[in-house]
Structure formats: C-alpha cells, structure tokens
Amino acid sequence: MALSQHPKVDGKMIFAVYNGQDDGLSLAEMAARLLAGQKEGWPALRDGYAGLESSLIQEIDGGNWKIQIQCNPRRMASSGADVHPEAIKNRRCFLCPENRPVEQQAILYRGAYHILCNPAPIFPRHLTIAHIRHIPQSLGGNVETMLLLAEDFGPATAVFYNGPRSGASAPDHLHFQAAPYGLMPIKNELDRQTGKCTQRIIGNVAIFRTEGLGRGVLVLRGNDGEAIVAMVGKILAVLSDMTAATQEPLVNVLCVRFGCGWQLLIFPRLKHRPDAFFSEGERRLIVSPGSADMAGVMITPRQKDFHRLTADVVASLYREVAFDDIMVEKLLAKL
Ligand SMILES: [Zn+2]
C-alpha cells in the first residue's frame, strides 16, 4: 500500500521527512529531536526509558572479552516473543503503521522507511527503522540500505540487523535498528584488536576475523559500497552452504560509518535461542540473543536469570548460539 493511501499516515504521524541532509538537519539531529518530542508526548516511551535507567547492569569479564548484562523487565515481550511462523501469522504486526500506538511518530526516511523510537529501549537513543510496507525481513537486497543509513546517521551510530531466525521479533516485517556504537562493548574489543589481526583484501574489501572474543566476528571494511554489498552476498551464500540453510542463514550484522567508508561486523549464528530458553522450571533461562547481545549488551528480563549469568554461563551461551573463531576462519577461507 502506498504511503499516501494509508489512513493513519498523516501529518500527525510523520514527525519529519529526511531525503538527504541538503541544508537541513542531519539525520542524527532529526532523530534526537524525534526522541525528545516522543518522550514528552508518548507516556509508554517515557516508561520505557525510565525502565532502562533503572535496569540492573553488571559487567562480565570473560578474560579476553568484557560484556554487560542488562536486566530489563520491559524486554520480556521481545525476549520471550513467540516467533514461530504460525504465531507470527496470527498476531497484529507491531511495525505496520495501522497497528502502532497513536502517539508513535516517525521520520519518513528517503520515502521508504519509518524511523521510530523503540518503546522498549536497550540503549539511550534506540531507534527502529521499519520499511513502510509489510515485507519480510531479509538482508539480501537490503545491505545498501544499511550502508546508506550508517552514512546518514554518521560514525556515532551503529545500524544493526537481526535475521528473521536470529533475533528479529518481527521476522515478517523488514526492519533495522540503530543505537550509539560507543555504548556497545564490541567497539572497545575491536579497537584493541585492530592492527593485531591479519587483514586480507578480497574484492576491494578489507576483511579480518577477531580472536578470542567468545563469539566469532567477521569484520569488513571499505569505501566501495558496491564491493561491500557483493561481499555480504558472497558471505551469505557461503554461510548457507556451511550451515545447510534453506532460508537466509542465521546472522546478526552491525554497520557503522568508518572514515569515508563503512565497517560491518558479521556474527554468523548456529541457533537463535539456547536450549535453556526452552527448558522448564528452574533450568529455564530467558535470553534471546540478537545483535545487541552479540555486540556485548546481553539482555535478560528476569532478575533471577540476571544473577545466573556468570562469565562461564555467558561463554557457553555464545558457544551454543554463535560461530567460534575456528568456524569463522573456515568461512574466511572460502571467500
Ligand atoms: Zn508489518
């Protein structure tokens, strides 16, 4: 449905329109104004940020890596969401304009996406970027959008993608998220590793993998957007092969502006949720890892799980749901 045909997409719902900076506000400034306005006019969002501010936080030191655990009860709807195809088909999509809260406003981004404030934020300035139409979540064909968003937001913001079977709570509606990159522990880990890792240039893209971070990360850097898009396509094809995936292979991707180009962090995944998520009673652990968790902000909505997440438990969770260094090395060898 074209945007103009939608009954609720009127002046009230659209906070601002962004078609490139020209002489106007940068996208980051526009988003900051959206957030400030929405905190004033949308009580549920204010509650979401109050919930974030009062979340318990603990730092986990895994030796070579450090992450944060955030106990955020407001994330229960997302962490505990039933993402089975049948359940998804039978619920009202919360990213479609007609189902959104009346108070929720959007920046219309380049005529194709609505930039929204995430009502259950994990980060200060946590945005959801939903396609204006209800089309499936998919990375292939949309990497260019991630690059453009990262460029428009500038280097302080990471744009991230959760695959339909690896953390997206709306696998049926194409969307990205955005949050401050500097608040993601993976940034410091990468800064420490840069220069120590052997970098290869493949197809005009610099590629390396991290070492000893508990979860394997493939890092792409370059100024040639088309080459990056092609390389991500190749990586997805190799991952499909390696994991015998019949649909999009399981990945989380972070994209951030890097110099005059981009840096992409690709976290190949083995499964979405650990077995303990599906356990009964005391053994149940509610963690549902997506990009944020891979980037080092692990979310659990329940306090009893928060206290169980020691370095050993986190390390075993990463081992269970993500590629390790050896698997990423194998992936790299096939590129
Ligand atoms: Zn939808």
Topology:
Elements: E1 14-18, H1 27-41, H2 43-53, E2 56-61, E3 66-71, H3 76-79, H4 85-89, E4 106-109, E5 113-117, E6 127-131, H5 143-153, E7 157-162, E8 175-180, H6 185-193, E9 200-202, E10 205-209, E11 218-222, H7 225-243, E12 251-258, E13 261-268, H8 291-294, E14 297-300, H9 303-308, H10 311-321, H11 325-333
Parallel strand pairs: 1-4, 3-14
Antiparallel strand pairs: 2-3, 4-5, 5-6, 6-8, 7-8, 7-12, 9-10, 10-11, 11-13, 12-13
Helix pairs in contact: 1-2
Bound molecules: zinc ion.
* Portion in helices: 25-40%
Instruction: Give the H and E element order.
Output: EHHEEHHEEEHEEHEEEHEEHEHHH
State the oligomer. single chain
Task: Return the CATH topology.
Answer: HIT family, subunit A
Largest sheet: 11 strands, mixed
Q: Which spans of ≥5 residues are poorly predicted at pLDDT below 50?
A: 1-7
What structural class do helix, strand and pairing data support? alpha+beta
Please report which band the strand proportion falls in: under 5%, 5-15%, 15-25%, 25-35%, 35-45% or over 45%.
15-25%
Compute the number of helices.
Answer: 11
- Assign the CATH architecture: 2-Layer Sandwich
Number of extended strands: 14
What does it look like?
With 335 residues, the protein is an alpha+beta fold. It has one domain: HIT family, subunit A, CATH 3.30.428. The protein is 31% helix and 23% strand. A hairpin with a 2-residue loop joins strand 12 and strand 13 (261-268). Helix 1 crosses helix 2 (43-53). The longest helix has 19 residues, at 225-243. The protein starts with 13 loop residues before the first strand and ends with a helix. Bound molecules: zinc ion (ZN). Residues 93, 95-96, 134, 173 line the site of zinc ion (ZN). The site of zinc ion has 5 residues, from loops.
